[in-house]
Amino acid sequence: xxxxxxxxKAGAYIEAQKIISKLxxxxxxxxxxxxxxxxxxxxxxxxGFVNHLDSVIGCNDKVYRIIGEPGTNTSxxxxxxxxxxxxxxxxxxxxxxxxDPENKIEHLxxxxxxxxxxxxxxxxxxxxxxxxxxxxxxxxxxxxxNQYFDVLQYDYRVFRELLETAITTIHDAKKSHxxxxxxxxxxxxxxxxxxxxxxxxERILKYAEELNI
Length: 213
What we know:
Layout: H1 2-6, H2 10-24, E1 36-39, E2 42-45, E3 48-51, H3 53-57, E4 62-67, H4 74-87, E5 92-96, E6 105-110, E7 115-120, E8 132-135, H5 142-145, H6 149-184, H7 190-211
Parallel strand pairs: 1-5, 4-7, 4-8
Antiparallel strand pairs: 2-3, 5-6, 6-7
């Protein structure tokens, strides 16, 4: 709530319009909308917070790094760009936040244009030579945030502690899982497993072919 009160919500629309005009302005609305492929580029794992932003960037020519504190509507910015891209017939890859996968896009790739948008923060960052910066922090009224400095520091500290607890719990669960595997593996018929895998893959490929995916 504190960040919501301190952030100019028009910022996401202003920055999105700049990007859309620059990259998509000359592309007309298509009779066939583009497809959205939903993915993850980062995860909370037994080893901690892991990301593969380098694979997201891939061989794309234009890289935009989005910088923004919590509440600066970085996800809304990407949603607006994505919506314009797909209505103009461009396929996109949308990478979602593992903490809030229902609502928050963190990264976006438009392969046909060779463009990738990377949201950077304390948990995932990647230094890219010649990347262009979109600074969403310029839409923050810091006179409001500074009034709640101690509260925000406390909230951040608690968030990190909860995240560390989650990672420890996942790590302990992985250890238990690995131990159970040592009990099951000697008694598994992996030939049967492979047969089941092949049948399942055949069904998936047939289904994909019918849907022309």
